[in-house]
Amino acid sequence: MNVQHIAIIMDGNGRWAAQRKRPRTWGHKAGVKAVKSTLKACVQSGISHLTLFAFSSENWRRPQSEVKRLMTLFLQSLEKESPELLQQGVAIRFIGDLSAFSEKLQIKMQEVSALQPEDKRLTLHVAVNYGGRWDIVQAAKQLASMHQQGTLDLSDIDESLFNRHTCLSQQPPIDLLIRTGGEQRISNFLLWQCAYTELFFIDTLWPDFDEKVLQSVLVDYNKRERRFGQTSDQLNA
Ligand code: FPP
């Protein structure tokens, strides 16, 4: 099956660091390396879209010192890695409520989003201060506001219109969602977008995720039958 779009919940950085008796931030740094190698592996496999859950709307509840270090790491990673990624054909975009970040980080995200590779091979969508419920609510607010202004009739609201106001609506549907780190939950990631996505919960901690692990997930994915509500007989007819 042709895979266009993969989403990943990158979990397990803290445990990876703890196993090595290092601070959690060390795990996040190793997580950035895993992001780089995953991007390469996706480009090589012809996957055109990758959406990564880098910071959820709930992650602000972590200890302030960890949040601060994560923000510094985001900024440094964008500064350091974006030129090379651009050369590799990677366009970087962001989803989430970006207004909560420092002005410096917001400016950097705007700058990086404006960069367009000459030969685009993959779009990386980084979800930051993102929550699936937030996404649905912001779409509902947009429609409510259009209705209030008299530009939208209630009878025109359907799934297709609603979808157009959610994040990633212009992108191919998400074929598979991978969560590393062994937990089996979605944690308020792409709730609307993953209605028919194939889910993979794997024990590998995010810093250990590499091309080999990705390939094994893809092999597994190819064994699945995506029925979208139909029966197996209908699909094979
Ligand atoms: C979850 O692991 C990971 C995060 C909340 C941060 C993810 C960030 C990165 C991988 C680095 C930056 C990425 C980009 C795109 C610049 P955890 O800390 O919850 O691990 P644990 O469950 O073992 O504690």
Give the strand content. Answer: 15-25%
Care to count the β-strands?
6
Poorly predicted ranges: none
CATH architecture: 3-Layer(aba) Sandwich
**Residue share in helices?**
40-55%
**What is the end-to-end distance?**
17 Å
The CATH homologous superfamily is named Decaprenyl diphosphate synthase-like
Give the count of structural domains. 1
Which fold name corresponds to the CATH topology? Answer: Undecaprenyl pyrophosphate synthetase
Strand order of the largest sheet: 3-4-2-1-5-6
Q: Radius of gyration from the CA trace? A: 19 Å
Let me know the average pLDDT. Answer: 96
Descriptive overview:
With 237 residues, this protein is an alpha/beta fold. It has one domain: 3-Layer(aba) Sandwich (Undecaprenyl pyrophosphate synthetase). 44% of the residues lie in helices and 15% in strands. It has 8 helices and 6 strands. The chain has helices spanning 13-19, 24-44, 64-87, 103-114, 132-148, 159-164, 211-223, 232-236, and strands at residues 5-9, 49-56, 90-95, 122-130, 176-179, 198-201. A 6-stranded parallel β-sheet has the order 3-4-2-1-5-6, with helices on both faces. Strand 3 (90-95), helix 4 (103-114) and strand 4 form a beta-alpha-beta unit. Helix 3 (64-87) packs parallel to helix 4. The radius of gyration is 19 Å and the shape is globular. The protein starts with a strand and ends with a helix. The model has no long low-confidence stretch (mean pLDDT 96). It binds farnesyl diphosphate (FPP).
